Amino acid sequence: MKSIVLESSKKGKVENTTSKIKNDFSFILDRNFFNENYVPSSSTRATTNFANLARGENRQENLRNTINMINNRFNSMAKWDNANNDRYSVELEIVSVAVDIDGSGKTFPSIEVLKTYVVDHKTSKRIEGIVGNNLSSYIRDYDFSILLSEHNKGDKNFELPDNFGELHGNIFKSFVNSDTYKNNFSKSPVICLSVSSNKTYHRTTNHHPILGFEYQTDTSSLTEEYFKKMGLKVRYFIPPNSVAPLAFYFFGDLLADYTNLELISTISTMETFQKIYRPEIYNANATAGECYNASLNNQDYSLTKIIYDREERTSLGIEQGKFTEEHFIKPNKSLLEQWSNNFSL
Prior knowledge:
Shape: globular
Radius of gyration: 20 Å
Distance between the termini: 43 Å
């Protein structure tokens, strides 16, 4: 396994504006396109889906194949006036969000998301897609790999630490409500993740032409509770010709706030990543029925030709959590606690 050197971030390239928020927190955006020449920046989490693909001997082949999968899936869903299934292509922009908590100019890489764009080759137009899609966070690594693990050492029953996820959730909400976000993005983010392997999902009769049939569940997962602290609601849909539901986390109204092409850009992107990362669920050879339990132990699935190191991803998550603890949580403990406790929109 290759070692990854993590470096504390300094103020670098600034896209558009930097916005001051409560207690002098400010956000700085950096953008990098995801294509076959993509090289992860030093502040990108090495465990992020797209960063994991962009390393090693097969990096360009991985990236090229991933982009082809996304474009093929997009065109298969956007069928109208698209007889040859080649009218559209998807461009992905990696948006890295650094936070400056004291106005010193020293920043920490807090959040990383993807922004989709749809290129219509028939009209030569480049159409805005959805921001969010994938969510990366060093602070989430700390919460799950360090804080939660340390809190549940020993033989006691599993429980959550006090205020678990509050800081991460408040930073995310601050970013989405900041001038920086509003000056750069026209719509609220949508995060698209895998469904939980510990829950049962039931198909409903509710059907959307793009998102497909909706699934519901009676129980909540730790991930859902964590995202709820970010202000996000969740709904589950299985898009046409998909084999498993996806979890869509959003503000507002998922079905009314976004166009068909916007939704397809998210589905084609995130379903592709899930087929690579969790083929047991999203590249399974059997489609989810009316009652569905996702399982990473499923043996009846197909592999893509894209190399993804899941074992390394897990180990690096711990390393990144420790990095966050050392460079962000511990040095700023009092300030962060005070800010988060007093946070309000």
